Amino acid sequence: MSNDNNGGNGFLIGLIAGSALGAIVGLLYAPKSGKELRDDIRTKSNEYLDDADKYIEDAKVKAKDLINDGKKKSDGLIADAKSKSEELLKEAQKIFDEAKSKTSKTVSEKKVNLEAEGTRLKSAVKAGVEAYKETKKS
Q: Are 32 and 40 in contact (CB under 8 A)?
């Protein structure tokens, strides 16, 4: 994988170097005086610098736009997550309250049943004790 990368980098460097060398040779063999040649070189280099500055400014603007878009999307995702978590908490509270209500109702019913059974059992035991005493007396 690194060989592919190095080959691509080498090709790019060779292309740039060849282009620069070709431009220099073309300028040197052009039928212009040294002063005209230097002026042309200066003009072209200034144009290239201006173009590079424009590309850099465009890249900065695009990067800023991408960052702002990312912030907006992340803010939206955070708001959605917060909203959904609040809904889940409300639903969980509702389920808890329902379970608590049902449990309280069931406990109350069982308590009443146990008290009734306890009373019945006490009566039965009391009747059994009375019957035992009666049988023992006789």
A: yes
